[in-house]
Amino acid sequence: MAKTLRSPQRYRGFVLTTVGLQKLQEQIKQLEIQTRLRQSPRTIAERVQLSEPEGIHPITVRKILNGENGVDKRSIQLIFRILQIQLEEGDYAHAGLCHQSTEVQPSVNAPATASLKVVSPVKHQDWSEAVDEAHLSGRVHELTQLNQAVITEHCRFVQVLGIAGVGKTALATMLVKAAQPEFEFVIWRCLHHIPTIPTVLTSILQCLSKRTEENFQLPTHIEELKGMLIEQLQKHRCLLVFDHFDAVLCGRQYAGYCRPGYEAYGELLRIVAEVPHQSCLIITSREKPRAIGLERESYIRSLQLNGLSLLECQQMFGNHSELVGSTDEWRSLVELFAGNPLALKVVVVCIQDYFNGRISNYLRYLNHGQLLFGDLRDLLSQQFNRLSEVERELACYLALHQTPVSISQFCKDIALLSNQPYLLEGLDSLNRRSLLQRQGAHFSLNPMMQIYINECLPEPQDTFSSKPKLKLISHQN
């Protein structure tokens, strides 16, 4: 009797990574907004059936969305193709490798990246100082970029920069959750309360000591603590996060310099970026630290985080059914607050409480009232008060212009041309604070800060005569 030949079974051991799952969820949300129909697993399976005779079962779609059980690679490819999403290598992985792998120690003379192909599973996670962030809306492209920098390119130092409320901590949280299977240790430290560096280093080393077989004696000298940390970063694959790094930076002078007595933080960043090891330090900050230069730039990544797009903002508030507004009204609202998630969350609550959930009513109110109030005003006031004298005058100057200004326009308006070198320093400092927007050779102020200066400062236009004269000062470190 002839044997019946069976077609080979597909390997059903693939799952979506955090990045791939978020890409899929964001596309589904976009489809639901466009079609006004819920994209259930059955609906998605029916979309596949229209173009693929073999189709896909709704249960398989549900497995992919839940990420709990492995499926065959073809099913993932089908869904991504039907939903018009580009499927990349980092979007899926073998289910087993998402939870366990084997560590390979680096050779002394080998490049830092050569030993990081395979790592051991997470042994310890310390999220005790992390903020419980809500679900991140959008940011798929940014998350993919950062994930590639941390996982694929093995960067030693990654900085996420942006104005207050733009979502730096939320993005860092999603990044760490996506990347943590690649690391032995994940440790999150918040610097909001300005802890000394010995305090932070000691707590990190204590975490590492508890979970390793080494019972090392912790030193008290800062240099010895930094040296011991680097040694541990070389021995183990660690993911460290310093959230709110700007708290240890100075105010009332040019951006990026550490507070007096906190200079060791800058030295630590420089060492982490320059010395070979197999770990990664991520910081979130409103200001770009000056400690990091161009040295070893292949191991450093910086991401300037801007506001959300119109679609991302609508998705963020998609479950607020009581919020009513046309596309143009939504666009006006998003543009007013430069897509800043925190600012929009505050305003949406205000619209629900006082304007019957109607965006149009709030926009009409703005013809007679102020855009900023309460927490929004306080948040921007804190950031404005950190500016140096030069930056304040430049910010007030830019706030008075409705269109971007060129350097040549600055030169026409500034009488003391001999002080122009400090003008560039001031602009660079504003840029480091994420307050400057560039369009070619022209500059403008961040819309949120521009509104604050025009609404909340007493007569900012009085800072200047008909021909503004900026009192430029040199930086004193």
Q: What is the secondary structure topology, with strand pairs?
A:
Elements: E1 14-16, H1 18-35, H2 41-51, H3 58-66, H4 73-82, E2 92-94, E3 124-126, H5 140-152, E4 157-161, H6 168-179, E5 185-190, H7 197-211, H8 222-235, E6 238-243, H9 263-274, E7 280-285, E8 300-304, H10 310-316, H11 327-336, H12 341-354, H13 359-365, H14 374-385, H15 389-399, E9 405-406, H16 407-413, H17 420-432, E10 436-439, E11 442-445, H18 447-456
Parallel strand pairs: 3-5, 4-7, 4-8, 5-6, 6-7
Antiparallel strand pairs: 1-2, 9-11, 10-11
Helix pairs in contact: 1-5, 2-3, 5-6, 7-8, 14-18, 15-17, 15-18
Major sheet strand order: 3-5-6-7-4-8
- β-sheet strand percentage: 5-15%
Beta-strand segment tally: 11
Radius of gyration: 26 Å
Distance between the termini: 91 Å
Overall description:
The chain is of the alpha/beta class and 477 residues long. It is 43% helix and 10% strand. It has helices spanning 18-35, 41-51, 58-66, 73-82, 140-152, 168-179, 197-211, 222-235, 263-274, 310-316, 327-336, 341-354, 359-365, 374-385, 389-399, 407-413, 420-432, 447-456, and strands spanning 14-16, 92-94, 124-126, 157-161, 185-190, 238-243, 280-285, 300-304, 405-406, 436-439, 442-445. A six-stranded parallel sheet has the order 3-5-6-7-4-8, sandwiched between helices. α2 (41-51) packs across α3. The protein starts with 13 loop residues before the first strand and ends in a 21-residue tail after the last helix. Residues 1-11, 96-120 and 462-477 have low confidence and may be disordered.
